[in-house]
Amino acid sequence: xASALDRSLIAxxxxxxxxxxxxxxxxxxxxxxxxxxxxxQPPEMHDLISAAAADLFQxxxxxxxxxMFRRSHGIMDDSGDDVQxxxxxxxxxxxxxxxxxxxxxxVFVFIARNTANLATVLSKSRIAxxxxxxxxx
Length: 137
What we know:
This protein is an alpha+beta fold. The chain has a single domain (4-136), classed as Beta-Lactamase (2-Layer Sandwich). It is built from 4 helices and 5 strands; from the N terminus they run αββααβββα. It has a 5-stranded antiparallel beta sheet, sandwiched between helices. α1 (4-15) runs antiparallel to α4 and α2 (43-58) runs parallel beside α3. The model has no long low-confidence stretch (mean pLDDT 88).
């Protein structure tokens, strides 16, 4: 039986235009908490999604950029998570990474075909984030 998170990921995929996959990653642990795809994917794909999300949001490169930006604007507090969303384009796909508002270690990932309208994908992903956040803790 599918978990509430899995059922909600299925619903999100149905709402996001041309979405082919959705998942939730715990970036602190580097594990995929839930994933749903429209086509079967090899387990290695799940590992790569977890690693990519963890590296993007927890990696030293982004943290250094955030810290430098804060300091250059006179903000000395380095405790915040400035980057909330990352969009990446490949030849065929559009990857949307959204940090949970409730638990900054949880990142939701939606993958859509690159023929989808970016504004609509982002809008629908943000809407899905609001109710998915409730389920992921």
